[in-house]
Protein backbone atom coordinates (compact mmCIF):
# COMPACT_ATOMS: atom_id res chain seq x y z
CA UNK A 1 0.00 0.00 0.00
CA UNK A 2 2.95 2.24 0.26
CA UNK A 3 5.91 2.77 -1.90
CA UNK A 4 9.20 1.11 -1.10
CA UNK A 5 7.82 -1.55 1.10
CA UNK A 6 10.63 -3.69 -0.17
CA UNK A 7 12.59 -3.31 3.03
CA UNK A 8 9.67 -3.93 5.31
CA UNK A 9 8.46 -6.95 3.41
CA UNK A 10 11.88 -8.46 3.21
CA UNK A 11 12.53 -7.92 6.86
CA UNK A 12 9.18 -9.14 8.01
CA UNK A 13 8.88 -12.50 6.49
CA UNK A 14 11.30 -12.82 3.65
CA UNK A 15 14.23 -13.07 5.97
CA UNK A 16 13.41 -16.18 7.93
CA UNK A 17 12.19 -18.00 4.88
CA UNK A 18 15.13 -16.87 2.85
CA UNK A 19 17.53 -18.28 5.37
CA UNK A 20 15.60 -21.44 5.95
CA UNK A 21 14.95 -21.65 2.24
CA UNK A 22 11.33 -22.55 2.68
CA UNK A 23 8.03 -21.16 3.75
CA UNK A 24 4.60 -22.65 3.35
CA UNK A 25 1.55 -20.73 2.36
CA UNK A 26 -0.24 -20.86 5.67
CA UNK A 27 2.61 -19.38 7.66
CA UNK A 28 3.03 -16.88 4.88
CA UNK A 29 -0.55 -15.66 5.22
CA UNK A 30 -0.27 -15.54 8.98
CA UNK A 31 2.72 -13.31 8.52
CA UNK A 32 0.78 -11.06 6.17
CA UNK A 33 -1.78 -10.46 8.83
CA UNK A 34 0.86 -9.98 11.47
CA UNK A 35 2.68 -7.48 9.30
CA UNK A 36 -0.46 -5.39 9.11
CA UNK A 37 -0.99 -5.50 12.82
CA UNK A 38 2.62 -4.97 13.66
CA UNK A 39 3.11 -2.08 11.28
CA UNK A 40 0.25 -0.16 12.81
CA UNK A 41 1.57 -1.03 16.24
CA UNK A 42 4.96 0.44 15.51
CA UNK A 43 3.50 3.63 14.01
CA UNK A 44 3.19 4.98 17.50
CA UNK A 45 6.93 4.93 17.32
CA UNK A 46 9.60 3.53 19.49
CA UNK A 47 11.73 6.37 18.30
CA UNK A 48 14.10 7.54 20.92
CA UNK A 49 17.53 8.80 20.22
CA UNK A 50 20.23 10.06 22.49
CA UNK A 51 23.66 11.26 21.58
CA UNK A 52 25.33 8.03 22.67
CA UNK A 53 23.53 5.67 20.34
CA UNK A 54 22.59 5.33 16.70
CA UNK A 55 18.92 5.02 15.73
CA UNK A 56 18.29 3.37 12.41
CA UNK A 57 14.89 4.16 10.92
CA UNK A 58 13.86 1.14 8.93
CA UNK A 59 11.12 -1.39 8.32
CA UNK A 60 11.19 -3.66 11.35
CA UNK A 61 10.95 -7.43 11.24
CA UNK A 62 14.30 -9.16 11.30
CA UNK A 63 16.31 -5.93 11.33
CA UNK A 64 17.47 -6.21 14.92
CA UNK A 65 18.95 -9.56 14.10
CA UNK A 66 20.27 -8.89 10.59
CA UNK A 67 21.36 -5.26 10.71
CA UNK A 68 22.23 -5.61 14.36
CA UNK A 69 24.67 -8.44 13.72
CA UNK A 70 26.03 -7.23 10.40
CA UNK A 71 26.57 -3.53 11.21
CA UNK A 72 25.51 -2.82 14.78
CA UNK A 73 27.90 -5.25 16.48
CA UNK A 74 31.14 -4.23 14.73
CA UNK A 75 30.18 -0.56 15.13
CA UNK A 76 29.51 -0.91 18.84
CA UNK A 77 32.80 -2.75 19.31
CA UNK A 78 34.64 0.09 17.58
CA UNK A 79 32.86 3.07 19.14
CA UNK A 80 30.84 1.87 22.14
CA UNK A 81 27.64 3.24 20.59
CA UNK A 82 24.83 0.68 20.35
CA UNK A 83 22.47 0.47 17.38
CA UNK A 84 18.75 0.89 18.02
CA UNK A 85 15.78 0.81 15.68
CA UNK A 86 12.70 2.81 14.81
CA UNK A 87 10.70 0.44 12.68
CA UNK A 88 7.94 2.72 11.39
CA UNK A 89 9.35 2.94 7.85
CA UNK A 90 11.15 6.04 6.51
CA UNK A 91 8.90 7.05 3.62
CA UNK A 92 9.79 10.36 1.99
CA UNK A 93 6.74 12.10 3.41
CA UNK A 94 7.57 10.95 6.92
CA UNK A 95 11.20 12.07 6.71
CA UNK A 96 10.07 15.49 5.49
CA UNK A 97 7.53 15.71 8.29
CA UNK A 98 10.08 14.70 10.93
CA UNK A 99 12.63 17.30 9.85
CA UNK A 100 10.01 20.04 9.38
CA UNK A 101 8.61 19.41 12.87
CA UNK A 102 12.06 19.99 14.37
CA UNK A 103 11.85 16.79 16.41
CA UNK A 104 14.38 14.57 14.65
CA UNK A 105 14.62 11.20 16.37
CA UNK A 106 16.42 9.08 13.75
CA UNK A 107 20.06 9.09 12.70
CA UNK A 108 19.98 7.10 9.52
CA UNK A 109 17.16 5.97 7.21
CA UNK A 110 17.22 2.71 5.31
CA UNK A 111 15.66 4.25 2.22
CA UNK A 112 16.15 4.59 -1.51
CA UNK A 113 18.83 6.59 -3.24
CA UNK A 114 16.19 8.62 -5.10
CA UNK A 115 14.95 9.82 -1.69
CA UNK A 116 18.32 11.52 -1.31
CA UNK A 117 17.81 13.35 -4.60
CA UNK A 118 14.21 14.28 -3.77
CA UNK A 119 14.80 15.52 -0.20
CA UNK A 120 18.42 16.73 -0.36
CA UNK A 121 18.02 20.06 -2.19
CA UNK A 122 15.19 21.21 0.11
CA UNK A 123 17.50 20.96 3.12
CA UNK A 124 15.92 17.92 4.77
CA UNK A 125 19.09 15.78 4.71
CA UNK A 126 22.68 15.94 5.93
CA UNK A 127 25.31 15.74 3.19
CA UNK A 128 27.39 12.57 3.23
CA UNK A 129 30.97 13.18 4.37
CA UNK A 130 33.04 11.50 1.67
CA UNK A 131 36.22 11.88 3.73
CA UNK A 132 34.78 9.22 6.04
CA UNK A 133 32.47 7.31 3.70
CA UNK A 134 34.27 5.83 0.69
CA UNK A 135 32.84 6.59 -2.75
CA UNK A 136 34.80 3.68 -4.19
CA UNK A 137 32.93 1.23 -1.95
CA UNK A 138 29.72 1.44 -3.95
CA UNK A 139 28.83 1.54 -7.63
CA UNK A 140 30.02 4.68 -9.49
CA UNK A 141 26.69 6.56 -9.76
CA UNK A 142 25.38 5.41 -6.42
CA UNK A 143 27.23 7.81 -4.12
CA UNK A 144 25.42 11.15 -4.28
CA UNK A 145 25.64 14.29 -2.18
CA UNK A 146 22.98 13.29 0.39
CA UNK A 147 23.00 9.51 0.26
CA UNK A 148 25.06 6.46 -0.49
CA UNK A 149 23.93 3.02 -1.63
CA UNK A 150 24.77 0.16 0.73
CA UNK A 151 22.72 -2.65 -0.79
CA UNK A 152 20.91 -3.22 -4.06
CA UNK A 153 17.52 -4.79 -4.61
CA UNK A 154 15.84 -5.36 -7.91
CA UNK A 155 12.75 -5.94 -10.03
CA UNK A 156 12.84 -9.24 -11.92
CA UNK A 157 10.11 -11.71 -12.91
CA UNK A 158 9.13 -15.32 -12.34
CA UNK A 159 7.25 -17.50 -14.83
CA UNK A 160 5.18 -20.68 -14.69
CA UNK A 161 7.19 -23.59 -16.14
CA UNK A 162 4.02 -25.62 -16.66
CA UNK A 163 2.62 -22.94 -18.94
CA UNK A 164 5.79 -22.04 -20.81
CA UNK A 165 8.15 -24.94 -20.11
CA UNK A 166 9.12 -25.62 -23.73
CA UNK A 167 9.95 -22.06 -24.75
CA UNK A 168 10.61 -20.22 -21.51
CA UNK A 169 10.37 -16.40 -21.53
CA UNK A 170 13.67 -14.66 -21.03
CA UNK A 171 13.09 -10.91 -21.32
CA UNK A 172 10.60 -8.16 -20.57
CA UNK A 173 9.58 -8.34 -24.24
CA UNK A 174 8.39 -11.90 -23.57
CA UNK A 175 6.75 -10.75 -20.32
CA UNK A 176 4.66 -8.18 -22.19
CA UNK A 177 3.89 -10.51 -25.12
CA UNK A 178 0.55 -12.01 -24.08
CA UNK A 179 -0.07 -13.37 -27.58
CA UNK A 180 3.00 -15.61 -27.53
CA UNK A 181 2.77 -16.25 -23.77
CA UNK A 182 -0.93 -16.19 -22.86
CA UNK A 183 -1.83 -15.65 -19.22
CA UNK A 184 -2.08 -13.03 -16.49
CA UNK A 185 0.74 -10.79 -15.33
CA UNK A 186 1.46 -8.92 -12.12
CA UNK A 187 3.39 -5.67 -11.85
CA UNK A 188 4.47 -3.27 -9.12
CA UNK A 189 1.73 -0.76 -8.33
CA UNK A 190 3.84 2.32 -7.63
CA UNK A 191 5.50 2.62 -11.04
CA UNK A 192 9.08 1.78 -10.03
CA UNK A 193 10.40 -1.03 -12.20
CA UNK A 194 7.12 -1.38 -14.09
CA UNK A 195 7.92 1.65 -16.27
CA UNK A 196 11.45 0.46 -16.99
CA UNK A 197 10.24 -3.05 -17.78
CA UNK A 198 7.67 -1.69 -20.23
CA UNK A 199 10.32 0.36 -22.03
CA UNK A 200 12.74 -2.56 -22.28
CA UNK A 201 9.87 -4.65 -23.62
CA UNK A 202 9.20 -1.96 -26.21
CA UNK A 203 12.77 -2.18 -27.46
CA UNK A 204 14.62 0.49 -25.45
CA UNK A 205 18.15 -0.65 -24.64
CA UNK A 206 18.76 -1.28 -20.94
CA UNK A 207 21.57 1.28 -20.95
CA UNK A 208 19.47 4.06 -22.53
CA UNK A 209 16.36 3.96 -20.34
CA UNK A 210 16.72 7.41 -18.80
CA UNK A 211 15.15 9.88 -19.08
CA UNK A 212 12.13 7.57 -19.18
CA UNK A 213 9.82 8.07 -22.15
CA UNK A 214 6.65 8.13 -20.04
CA UNK A 215 4.16 8.12 -22.92
CA UNK A 216 5.80 5.15 -24.53
CA UNK A 217 6.01 3.20 -21.26
CA UNK A 218 2.40 3.93 -20.28
CA UNK A 219 1.12 2.97 -23.72
CA UNK A 220 2.84 -0.40 -23.37
CA UNK A 221 1.42 -0.89 -19.87
CA UNK A 222 -2.11 0.15 -20.81
CA UNK A 223 -2.07 -2.29 -23.75
CA UNK A 224 -1.65 -5.11 -21.22
CA UNK A 225 -3.89 -3.64 -18.52
CA UNK A 226 -6.75 -6.13 -18.90
CA UNK A 227 -4.35 -9.00 -18.30
CA UNK A 228 -2.55 -7.30 -15.41
CA UNK A 229 -2.84 -7.24 -11.65
CA UNK A 230 -0.84 -4.78 -9.59
CA UNK A 231 0.73 -5.46 -6.22
CA UNK A 232 1.64 -2.98 -3.53
CA UNK A 233 3.67 -5.19 -1.22
CA UNK A 234 6.11 -8.03 -1.58
CA UNK A 235 3.82 -10.45 0.20
CA UNK A 236 1.05 -9.62 -2.26
CA UNK A 237 3.39 -10.22 -5.21
CA UNK A 238 4.41 -13.52 -3.66
CA UNK A 239 0.85 -14.71 -3.05
CA UNK A 240 -0.30 -13.74 -6.56
CA UNK A 241 2.31 -16.13 -7.90
CA UNK A 242 2.06 -19.05 -5.49
CA UNK A 243 -1.76 -18.98 -5.67
CA UNK A 244 -1.59 -19.26 -9.43
CA UNK A 245 -3.30 -15.93 -10.05
CA UNK A 246 -0.68 -15.00 -12.63
CA UNK A 247 1.50 -17.02 -14.95
CA UNK A 248 4.26 -14.40 -14.97
CA UNK A 249 4.85 -12.03 -12.11
CA UNK A 250 7.20 -9.17 -11.44
CA UNK A 251 8.80 -9.65 -8.01
CA UNK A 252 11.58 -8.26 -5.90
CA UNK A 253 14.45 -10.41 -7.04
CA UNK A 254 15.39 -11.71 -3.59
CA UNK A 255 11.98 -13.35 -3.35
CA UNK A 256 12.79 -15.44 -6.39
CA UNK A 257 14.34 -18.17 -4.28
CA UNK A 258 11.39 -18.29 -1.86
CA UNK A 259 8.97 -18.58 -4.73
CA UNK A 260 10.95 -21.31 -6.50
CA UNK A 261 11.04 -23.37 -3.31
CA UNK A 262 7.46 -22.55 -2.34
CA UNK A 263 6.15 -23.84 -5.67
CA UNK A 264 8.56 -26.82 -5.95
CA UNK A 265 10.34 -25.09 -8.85
CA UNK A 266 7.13 -24.70 -10.82
CA UNK A 267 7.89 -20.97 -11.00
CA UNK A 268 11.36 -19.90 -12.11
CA UNK A 269 13.14 -16.59 -11.64
CA UNK A 270 14.46 -14.71 -14.69
CA UNK A 271 17.26 -12.28 -13.83
CA UNK A 272 17.90 -11.13 -17.41
CA UNK A 273 17.10 -7.39 -17.69
CA UNK A 274 16.29 -7.17 -13.98
CA UNK A 275 16.27 -3.56 -12.78
CA UNK A 276 18.81 -2.92 -10.02
CA UNK A 277 17.60 -0.42 -7.41
CA UNK A 278 20.07 1.29 -5.08
CA UNK A 279 18.86 1.08 -1.49
CA UNK A 280 20.60 3.89 0.38
CA UNK A 281 21.48 5.25 3.79
CA UNK A 282 20.36 8.83 4.17
CA UNK A 283 20.62 11.07 7.21
CA UNK A 284 17.84 13.44 8.34
CA UNK A 285 19.05 17.01 8.93
CA UNK A 286 20.02 17.53 12.57
CA UNK A 287 20.18 13.84 13.53
CA UNK A 288 20.61 13.39 17.30
CA UNK A 289 23.89 11.43 17.23
CA UNK A 290 25.57 14.11 15.15
CA UNK A 291 27.09 14.01 11.70
CA UNK A 292 30.49 12.66 12.66
CA UNK A 293 29.19 9.53 14.38
CA UNK A 294 26.67 8.65 11.74
CA UNK A 295 29.23 8.96 8.94
CA UNK A 296 31.42 6.46 10.78
CA UNK A 297 28.40 4.20 11.07
CA UNK A 298 27.71 4.38 7.33
CA UNK A 299 31.38 3.64 6.63
CA UNK A 300 31.04 0.50 8.78
CA UNK A 301 28.08 -0.60 6.65
CA UNK A 302 30.26 -0.36 3.55
CA UNK A 303 32.47 -3.16 4.79
CA UNK A 304 32.20 -6.23 2.51
CA UNK A 305 31.79 -8.56 5.48
CA UNK A 306 28.77 -6.58 6.74
CA UNK A 307 27.21 -6.49 3.28
CA UNK A 308 27.70 -10.21 2.74
CA UNK A 309 26.02 -10.84 6.07
CA UNK A 310 23.00 -8.80 4.94
CA UNK A 311 22.94 -10.89 1.77
CA UNK A 312 22.96 -14.09 3.80
CA UNK A 313 20.36 -12.79 6.26
CA UNK A 314 17.98 -10.89 3.96
CA UNK A 315 18.97 -11.54 0.36
CA UNK A 316 19.93 -7.90 -0.21
CA UNK A 317 22.77 -7.67 -2.72
CA UNK A 318 26.06 -5.91 -1.80
CA UNK A 319 26.82 -2.67 -3.64
CA UNK A 320 30.51 -2.60 -2.68
CA UNK A 321 32.49 -3.94 -5.70
CA UNK A 322 34.97 -5.56 -3.31
CA UNK A 323 32.19 -7.90 -2.16
CA UNK A 324 31.01 -8.98 -5.62
CA UNK A 325 33.55 -11.76 -5.97
CA UNK A 326 32.80 -13.04 -2.47
CA UNK A 327 29.12 -13.80 -3.08
CA UNK A 328 28.58 -17.46 -2.11
CA UNK A 329 27.75 -19.84 -4.91
CA UNK A 330 24.22 -20.69 -3.79
CA UNK A 331 23.32 -16.98 -3.73
CA UNK A 332 24.78 -16.15 -7.15
CA UNK A 333 21.67 -16.81 -9.27
CA UNK A 334 19.64 -14.46 -7.05
CA UNK A 335 22.20 -11.71 -6.39
CA UNK A 336 22.18 -8.70 -8.69
CA UNK A 337 25.90 -8.05 -8.68
CA UNK A 338 27.13 -11.64 -8.96
CA UNK A 339 29.35 -12.41 -11.94
CA UNK A 340 26.58 -14.26 -13.74
CA UNK A 341 24.02 -11.43 -13.45
CA UNK A 342 25.83 -8.10 -13.31
CA UNK A 343 26.21 -7.64 -17.08
CA UNK A 344 22.57 -8.52 -17.78
CA UNK A 345 20.83 -6.15 -15.38
CA UNK A 346 19.70 -2.57 -15.96
CA UNK A 347 20.64 0.06 -13.40
CA UNK A 348 18.12 2.51 -11.95
CA UNK A 349 18.92 6.21 -12.29
CA UNK A 350 18.17 7.72 -8.85
CA UNK A 351 18.56 11.28 -10.17
CA UNK A 352 15.76 10.88 -12.70
CA UNK A 353 13.53 9.20 -10.10
CA UNK A 354 14.31 11.76 -7.42
CA UNK A 355 13.41 14.62 -9.71
CA UNK A 356 10.47 13.09 -11.59
CA UNK A 357 9.28 10.26 -9.35
CA UNK A 358 6.21 12.00 -7.93
CA UNK A 359 4.81 12.88 -11.34
CA UNK A 360 5.74 9.46 -12.71
CA UNK A 361 3.87 7.65 -9.91
CA UNK A 362 0.77 9.78 -10.46
CA UNK A 363 0.85 9.30 -14.23
CA UNK A 364 1.23 5.55 -13.70
CA UNK A 365 -1.69 5.42 -11.24
CA UNK A 366 -3.80 7.39 -13.68
CA UNK A 367 -3.01 4.87 -16.41
CA UNK A 368 -3.74 1.70 -14.43
CA UNK A 369 -6.74 2.70 -12.30
CA UNK B 1 -24.52 39.79 36.36
CA UNK B 2 -23.73 36.23 37.25
CA UNK B 3 -27.42 35.73 37.82
CA UNK B 4 -28.32 36.92 34.34
CA UNK B 5 -25.60 34.69 32.92
CA UNK B 6 -27.02 31.78 34.82
CA UNK B 7 -30.39 32.52 33.33
CA UNK B 8 -29.08 32.18 29.79
CA UNK B 9 -26.35 29.57 30.11
CA UNK B 10 -27.19 26.20 31.56
CA UNK B 11 -24.74 25.25 34.35
CA UNK B 12 -24.13 22.00 32.47
CA UNK B 13 -21.92 23.93 30.06
CA UNK B 14 -19.50 24.74 32.86
CA UNK B 15 -18.94 21.04 33.42
CA UNK B 16 -18.51 20.37 29.73
CA UNK B 17 -16.39 23.42 28.96
CA UNK B 18 -12.90 21.99 29.67
CA UNK B 19 -13.54 18.98 27.48
CA UNK B 20 -15.10 21.13 24.81
CA UNK B 21 -11.99 23.29 24.79
CA UNK B 22 -9.81 20.21 24.51
CA UNK B 23 -11.79 18.94 21.55
CA UNK B 24 -11.70 22.31 19.86
CA UNK B 25 -7.94 22.63 20.26
CA UNK B 26 -7.01 19.06 19.39
CA UNK B 27 -9.56 18.60 16.64
CA UNK B 28 -10.09 21.96 14.99
CA UNK B 29 -6.40 22.83 15.11
CA UNK B 30 -5.22 20.02 12.83
CA UNK B 31 -8.22 20.48 10.54
CA UNK B 32 -7.44 24.15 10.10
CA UNK B 33 -3.85 23.15 9.45
CA UNK B 34 -5.02 20.84 6.64
CA UNK B 35 -7.15 23.60 5.15
CA UNK B 36 -4.24 25.99 5.38
CA UNK B 37 -1.96 23.44 3.67
CA UNK B 38 -4.46 22.96 0.85
CA UNK B 39 -4.29 26.69 0.15
CA UNK B 40 -0.55 27.22 0.57
CA UNK B 41 1.34 24.12 -0.61
CA UNK B 42 3.32 24.24 -2.87
CA UNK B 43 2.52 27.97 -3.24
CA UNK B 44 -0.30 30.22 -1.97
CA UNK B 45 -3.43 30.22 -4.08
CA UNK B 46 -6.33 28.09 -5.18
CA UNK B 47 -4.37 25.99 -7.67
CA UNK B 48 -4.92 22.80 -5.67
CA UNK B 49 -8.66 23.26 -5.97
CA UNK B 50 -8.33 24.24 -9.62
CA UNK B 51 -6.98 20.74 -10.24
CA UNK B 52 -10.51 19.48 -9.72
CA UNK B 53 -11.43 21.17 -13.00
CA UNK B 54 -8.27 20.48 -14.92
CA UNK B 55 -7.26 17.03 -13.75
CA UNK B 56 -9.44 14.21 -15.06
CA UNK B 57 -7.72 11.63 -12.85
CA UNK B 58 -8.83 13.34 -9.65
CA UNK B 59 -12.40 13.48 -10.87
CA UNK B 60 -12.28 9.85 -11.85
CA UNK B 61 -10.92 8.81 -8.46
CA UNK B 62 -13.60 10.84 -6.68
CA UNK B 63 -16.28 9.34 -8.91
CA UNK B 64 -15.00 5.79 -8.31
CA UNK B 65 -15.02 6.44 -4.57
CA UNK B 66 -18.52 7.90 -4.64
CA UNK B 67 -19.89 5.08 -6.78
CA UNK B 68 -18.39 2.30 -4.67
CA UNK B 69 -19.51 3.94 -1.42
CA UNK B 70 -23.04 4.39 -2.73
CA UNK B 71 -23.39 0.78 -3.87
CA UNK B 72 -21.86 -0.42 -0.59
CA UNK B 73 -24.33 1.70 1.35
CA UNK B 74 -27.37 0.43 -0.52
CA UNK B 75 -26.43 -3.23 -0.22
CA UNK B 76 -25.22 -3.01 3.39
CA UNK B 77 -28.33 -1.21 4.60
CA UNK B 78 -30.60 -3.65 2.76
CA UNK B 79 -28.81 -6.60 4.40
CA UNK B 80 -28.65 -4.76 7.70
CA UNK B 81 -32.36 -4.05 7.63
CA UNK B 82 -33.30 -7.70 7.18
CA UNK B 83 -30.87 -8.80 9.88
CA UNK B 84 -32.10 -6.17 12.35
CA UNK B 85 -35.71 -7.06 11.54
CA UNK B 86 -35.05 -10.73 12.15
CA UNK B 87 -33.24 -9.96 15.39
CA UNK B 88 -35.99 -7.78 16.80
CA UNK B 89 -38.58 -10.43 16.12
CA UNK B 90 -36.53 -13.39 17.29
CA UNK B 91 -36.86 -15.09 20.65
CA UNK B 92 -34.86 -13.34 23.40
CA UNK B 93 -32.34 -16.15 23.67
CA UNK B 94 -31.77 -16.36 19.96
CA UNK B 95 -31.56 -12.58 19.80
CA UNK B 96 -28.59 -12.68 22.16
CA UNK B 97 -26.86 -15.28 20.05
CA UNK B 98 -27.44 -13.23 16.91
CA UNK B 99 -26.08 -10.12 18.57
CA UNK B 100 -23.00 -12.01 19.71
CA UNK B 101 -22.32 -13.29 16.21
CA UNK B 102 -22.79 -9.81 14.81
CA UNK B 103 -20.41 -8.27 17.32
CA UNK B 104 -17.80 -10.96 16.76
CA UNK B 105 -17.67 -10.10 13.08
CA UNK B 106 -17.73 -6.42 14.06
CA UNK B 107 -14.57 -6.84 16.13
CA UNK B 108 -12.47 -8.91 13.72
CA UNK B 109 -9.64 -6.91 12.20
CA UNK B 110 -10.29 -5.60 8.72
CA UNK B 111 -6.99 -7.09 7.54
CA UNK B 112 -7.94 -10.57 8.66
CA UNK B 113 -11.30 -10.26 6.94
CA UNK B 114 -9.76 -8.96 3.73
CA UNK B 115 -7.23 -11.78 3.54
CA UNK B 116 -9.93 -14.30 4.39
CA UNK B 117 -11.90 -13.18 1.36
CA UNK B 118 -8.81 -13.71 -0.75
CA UNK B 119 -8.51 -17.26 0.55
CA UNK B 120 -12.20 -18.00 0.05
CA UNK B 121 -12.82 -16.32 -3.28
CA UNK B 122 -9.36 -16.15 -4.81
CA UNK B 123 -8.15 -17.81 -7.99
CA UNK B 124 -7.24 -20.95 -6.06
CA UNK B 125 -9.70 -20.26 -3.28
CA UNK B 126 -12.20 -22.53 -1.61
CA UNK B 127 -15.18 -21.49 -3.71
CA UNK B 128 -13.45 -21.65 -7.08
CA UNK B 129 -11.92 -25.02 -6.25
CA UNK B 130 -15.25 -26.41 -5.14
CA UNK B 131 -17.06 -25.16 -8.24
CA UNK B 132 -14.35 -26.56 -10.47
CA UNK B 133 -14.45 -29.94 -8.75
CA UNK B 134 -18.21 -30.04 -9.22
CA UNK B 135 -17.71 -29.20 -12.90
CA UNK B 136 -19.90 -26.13 -12.63
CA UNK B 137 -17.19 -23.88 -14.03
CA UNK B 138 -14.16 -24.68 -16.18
CA UNK B 139 -12.14 -21.54 -15.42
CA UNK B 140 -11.83 -19.86 -12.02
CA UNK B 141 -14.23 -16.93 -11.67
CA UNK B 142 -12.62 -13.57 -10.87
CA UNK B 143 -14.45 -12.72 -7.65
CA UNK B 144 -11.59 -10.67 -6.22
CA UNK B 145 -8.85 -8.36 -7.52
CA UNK B 146 -11.50 -6.21 -9.16
CA UNK B 147 -14.35 -3.88 -8.23
CA UNK B 148 -16.60 -6.81 -7.33
CA UNK B 149 -14.03 -7.96 -4.78
CA UNK B 150 -13.84 -4.49 -3.27
CA UNK B 151 -17.63 -4.37 -2.94
CA UNK B 152 -17.80 -7.81 -1.32
CA UNK B 153 -15.13 -6.86 1.19
CA UNK B 154 -16.67 -3.50 1.98
CA UNK B 155 -20.24 -4.72 2.32
CA UNK B 156 -19.09 -7.49 4.62
CA UNK B 157 -17.32 -4.97 6.81
CA UNK B 158 -20.19 -2.50 6.82
CA UNK B 159 -23.18 -4.74 7.56
CA UNK B 160 -22.77 -4.62 11.38
CA UNK B 161 -22.53 -0.82 11.18
CA UNK B 162 -25.84 -0.82 9.34
CA UNK B 163 -27.50 -3.25 11.76
CA UNK B 164 -26.75 -1.46 15.00
CA UNK B 165 -28.59 1.86 14.40
CA UNK B 166 -31.48 0.00 12.76
CA UNK B 167 -31.71 -2.38 15.70
CA UNK B 168 -31.87 0.47 18.20
CA UNK B 169 -34.56 2.13 16.13
CA UNK B 170 -36.67 -1.00 15.73
CA UNK B 171 -36.46 -1.91 19.40
CA UNK B 172 -38.04 1.41 20.42
CA UNK B 173 -41.05 1.02 18.12
CA UNK B 174 -44.43 0.60 19.75
CA UNK B 175 -45.63 -2.77 18.48
CA UNK B 176 -49.24 -1.91 19.32
CA UNK B 177 -49.28 0.38 16.27
CA UNK B 178 -48.67 -2.61 14.02
CA UNK B 179 -51.30 -4.64 15.84
CA UNK B 180 -53.77 -1.81 15.42
CA UNK B 181 -53.03 -1.71 11.71
CA UNK B 182 -53.70 -5.41 11.35
CA UNK B 183 -56.77 -5.07 13.52
CA UNK B 184 -58.14 -2.42 11.18
CA UNK B 185 -57.83 -4.81 8.24
CA UNK B 186 -54.45 -4.05 6.66
CA UNK B 187 -52.57 -7.01 5.23
CA UNK B 188 -49.09 -7.93 6.47
CA UNK B 189 -47.30 -6.23 3.62
CA UNK B 190 -49.53 -3.16 3.84
CA UNK B 191 -48.68 -2.85 7.51
CA UNK B 192 -44.98 -3.20 6.74
CA UNK B 193 -44.83 -0.69 3.92
CA UNK B 194 -47.26 1.87 5.32
CA UNK B 195 -46.52 1.66 9.05
CA UNK B 196 -43.32 -0.19 9.86
CA UNK B 197 -41.05 1.16 7.12
CA UNK B 198 -41.93 4.84 7.69
CA UNK B 199 -41.43 4.39 11.43
CA UNK B 200 -37.93 3.00 10.86
CA UNK B 201 -36.93 5.86 8.55
CA UNK B 202 -34.67 7.50 11.17
CA UNK B 203 -32.85 4.19 11.56
CA UNK B 204 -32.43 3.80 7.81
CA UNK B 205 -31.09 7.31 7.44
CA UNK B 206 -28.69 6.83 10.34
CA UNK B 207 -27.46 3.53 8.93
CA UNK B 208 -27.00 5.04 5.45
CA UNK B 209 -25.09 8.03 6.80
CA UNK B 210 -22.88 5.91 9.02
CA UNK B 211 -22.06 3.38 6.32
CA UNK B 212 -21.52 5.95 3.58
CA UNK B 213 -19.27 8.18 5.66
CA UNK B 214 -17.18 5.27 6.93
CA UNK B 215 -16.94 3.83 3.41
CA UNK B 216 -15.42 7.06 2.13
CA UNK B 217 -12.32 6.42 4.20
CA UNK B 218 -11.75 2.82 3.09
CA UNK B 219 -8.15 2.11 2.33
CA UNK B 220 -7.02 -1.43 3.06
CA UNK B 221 -9.86 -3.31 1.36
CA UNK B 222 -9.70 -1.57 -2.04
CA UNK B 223 -5.90 -1.79 -2.00
CA UNK B 224 -5.87 -5.55 -1.47
CA UNK B 225 -9.08 -6.81 -3.07
CA UNK B 226 -8.95 -4.33 -5.96
CA UNK B 227 -5.84 -5.79 -7.56
CA UNK B 228 -4.36 -2.31 -7.90
CA UNK B 229 -6.98 -1.16 -10.36
CA UNK B 230 -9.53 0.28 -7.94
CA UNK B 231 -8.07 3.51 -6.62
CA UNK B 232 -10.10 5.32 -3.98
CA UNK B 233 -9.56 8.73 -2.44
CA UNK B 234 -8.10 7.56 0.88
CA UNK B 235 -5.36 5.55 -0.78
CA UNK B 236 -4.62 8.36 -3.20
CA UNK B 237 -4.27 10.84 -0.33
CA UNK B 238 -1.83 8.52 1.40
CA UNK B 239 0.27 8.23 -1.75
CA UNK B 240 0.35 12.00 -2.21
CA UNK B 241 1.42 12.47 1.41
CA UNK B 242 4.01 9.75 1.74
CA UNK B 243 5.37 9.04 -1.71
CA UNK B 244 4.94 11.86 -4.19
CA UNK B 245 5.13 14.63 -1.55
CA UNK B 246 2.24 16.57 -3.07
CA UNK B 247 0.87 17.58 0.30
CA UNK B 248 -1.24 20.37 -1.20
CA UNK B 249 -3.18 17.91 -3.34
CA UNK B 250 -3.58 15.56 -0.39
CA UNK B 251 -4.83 18.36 1.85
CA UNK B 252 -7.22 19.57 -0.83
CA UNK B 253 -8.73 16.09 -1.21
CA UNK B 254 -9.00 15.70 2.56
CA UNK B 255 -10.76 19.06 2.81
CA UNK B 256 -13.06 18.03 0.00
CA UNK B 257 -14.01 14.84 1.83
CA UNK B 258 -14.65 16.77 5.02
CA UNK B 259 -16.89 19.33 3.32
CA UNK B 260 -18.58 16.58 1.34
CA UNK B 261 -19.57 14.83 4.57
CA UNK B 262 -20.65 18.10 6.20
CA UNK B 263 -22.74 18.99 3.16
CA UNK B 264 -24.34 15.57 3.28
CA UNK B 265 -25.28 16.08 6.93
CA UNK B 266 -26.62 19.55 6.11
CA UNK B 267 -28.82 18.26 3.31
CA UNK B 268 -30.13 15.50 5.56
CA UNK B 269 -30.90 18.01 8.29
CA UNK B 270 -33.20 19.81 5.84
CA UNK B 271 -35.33 16.69 5.59
CA UNK B 272 -35.33 15.52 9.16
CA UNK B 273 -34.11 16.27 12.63
CA UNK B 274 -30.61 14.87 12.81
CA UNK B 275 -30.83 14.41 16.56
CA UNK B 276 -33.48 11.71 16.05
CA UNK B 277 -31.13 9.92 13.70
CA UNK B 278 -28.42 9.83 16.32
CA UNK B 279 -30.71 8.68 19.08
CA UNK B 280 -31.84 12.01 20.50
CA UNK B 281 -35.42 12.65 21.56
CA UNK B 282 -37.99 12.88 18.82
CA UNK B 283 -39.82 15.86 20.25
Would you give an account of this structure?
The complex is a heterodimer of chains A (369) and B (283). Chain A has 369 residues and is α/β, with parallel strands linked by helices. Chain A folds into 2 domains: 6-152 and 277-339, Periplasmic binding protein-like II (D-Maltodextrin-Binding Protein, domain 2, 3-Layer(aba) Sandwich), CATH 3.40.190; 154-276 and 348-368, D-Maltodextrin-Binding Protein, domain 2. Chain A is 42% helix and 17% strand. In chain A, strands 1, 2, 3, 4, 5, 6, 7, 8, 9, 10 and 11 form an 11-stranded mixed sheet that branches. Chain B has 2 domains: 1-40; 56-277, MetI-like (MetI-like fold, Orthogonal Bundle). Helices cover 78% and strands 0% of the residues of chain B. Chain B has 15 helices and no strands. Chain B has helices at 2-8, 12-40, 47-54, 56-88, 92-107, 110-121, 126-133, 147-171, 175-183, 188-199, 201-216, 220-225, 233-242, 247-271, 274-277. In chain B, helix 8 (147-171) runs antiparallel to helix 11 and helix 11 runs antiparallel to helix 14. The A-B interface holds A 1-4, 29, 32-33, 36-37, 91-94, 96, 118, 189-190, 225, 229-232, 236, 239, 243-245, 357-359, 361-362, 365-366, 368-369 and B 57, 60-61, 64, 109, 111-112, 115, 118-119, 122-124, 145, 219-220, 223-224, 227-231, 235-236, 238-239, 241-247.
